[in-house]
From TrEMBL:
Protein name: MerR family transcriptional regulator
Source organism: Halalkalibacter oceani
Gene Ontology MF term list: DNA binding; DNA-binding transcription factor activity
Top-rank lineage group of the source organism: Bacteria
Keyword terms: DNA-binding, Repressor, Transcription, Transcription regulation
PROSITE patterns noted in UniProt: HTH_MERR_2 (PS50937)
A Pfam family reported for this protein in Swiss-Prot or TrEMBL: MerR_1
Stretches assigned to the HTH merR-type domain: 1-70
Ranges in coiled-coil conformation: none
């Protein structure tokens, strides 16, 4: 069992974020010890690590919420569909960013030729 400060260190999240994720239902409300401190289980730490990994992929919290709910119901086909949808969204975002980068590179190259390297 872990206190929230230990969980924060283990998953590299600020304590307020852990509390917020708890209110969103990403982890169950932890039981309290005799002193009134919330005690987080190893399972809670693993869920939070997984959520951090999903956030690292820019998955929106609402989508993560659906994923966690489906996972808890053993609805793996929904989990897979959520991941596929997110992958497609990221592919589109990547293509958009690549076009933006190419435009910027063209502008830099064009400006460099016109103004002698920007000096």
């Amino acid at each position: 069992m872990y206190q929230i400060s230990e969980v924060a260190r283990l998953v590299n999240l600020p304590i307020p974020t852990i509390r917020y994720y708890e209110t969103l239902g990403f982890i169950e409300t932890p039981a309290k010890d005799a002193r009134g401190y919330k005690m987080y289980r190893k399972q809670d730490v693993e869920y939070l690590r997984f959520i951090v990994h999903l956030r690292d992929t820019d998955m929106p919290l609402e989508q993560i919420k659906h994923y966690v709910h489906a996972y808890r119901l053993d609805d793996y086909s929904t989990c897979y569909a959520i991941l596929q949808e997110h992958e497609q969204k990221m592919q589109l975002e990547l293509a958009k960013r690549q076009m933006i980068l190419e435009k910027i590179q063209y502008k830099v190259s064009h400006f460099s030729k016109l103004k002698g390297g920007g000096t």
